[in-house]
Structures are given as structure tokens and as C-alpha cells.
Amino acid sequence: MSQKVVVDQETCIGCGNCEAVCPEVFKLDPAIDKSQVIKPEGGPDCVEDAIDQCPVEAISWQ
Ligand code: SF4
Asked: Is the CB of 56 under 6 A from ligand 1?
């Protein structure tokens, strides 16, 4: 089973929380003010923290 971390680009409001708690996996793109997944396979447990910290629930595993 291999899941990928996804940021829903419609929903993301570019708050930066995910990058703050999990910079290995998430990076804010300042040009569009959306978070990009730079490591879709995830990584450290911080992905779960990022999911918890996202105010609009834009992050999911698919
Ligand atoms: S925490 Fe959620 S809303 Fe904020 S930048 Fe990350 S994905 Fe977007």
C-alpha cells in the first residue's frame, strides 16, 4: 500500500502551517499562495501534525 500526501489546491488558503510543522514535505509557493507537496511519499510523522494544523482540512492521504 502506498499512499500519497495531497494538498487540495482549491481549498488551501496558503496559511503556511503545514510548512512550519513539516518543511520536509510541504513548501509554500509564494507565487500562488498555495502549499505544494515536495515529498508525496510523506516522511516523518509531521505529516499528521500538518493535517491537524491545517485550518481548512486541505491535506489528505490518497
Ligand atoms: S496548512 Fe492547509 S491551508 Fe495552510 S498552507 Fe498548508 S495546506 Fe494550505
From this structure: yes
Of 24-28, 43-47, 49-53, 58-62, least confident by mean pLDDT is 43-47
7 ligand 1 Cβ < 6 A:
yes
Q: pLDDT for 29-45, tens place per residue? A: 999 999 999 999 988 88
- The position carrying cell 510548512 is 19
Alpha helices, H only, 2-44: 17-21
CATH of domain 5-61: 3.30.70.20
Domain positions in the chain are 5-61
Per-residue cell: 1: 500500500
Nearest CA to ligand 1 atom 4: 15
